[in-house]
Write a structure and sequence with these properties.
Helix content is 60%, strand content 0%. The chain is mostly helical. Mean pLDDT is 84; it is low at 74-78.
């Protein structure tokens, strides 16, 4: 498994948590704004400065965000 910078991993964990909250409470403007801000923070993080990540890197980062709080539902087996 790759090592990601702490702030990138934290942003991904927050993104996953916010996404789940938005699924539970659809239409909440503050959650949509937070999700949008976190999406930009993850996508444009300096870690990706060398080039856009490969799909496997996105998968590992998203998996890290999902598994951080023990929520593994929705994870596909590889």
């Amino acid at each position: 498994m790759r090592t990601f910078p702490d702030d990138l991993a934290r942003a991904q964990r927050e993104w996953s948590a916010t996404y789940r909250q938005l699924a539970e409470h659809p239409g909440r403007t503050e959650l949509r704004r937070r999700l949008h801000r976190l999406s930009a923070q993850v996508f444009f993080h300096p870690h990706w400065q060398h080039g856009r990540p490969r799909p496997a890197e996105w998968w590992e980062l998203r998996d890290l965000g999902r598994s951080a709080d023990g929520n593994t539902s929705g994870r596909l087996e590889r």
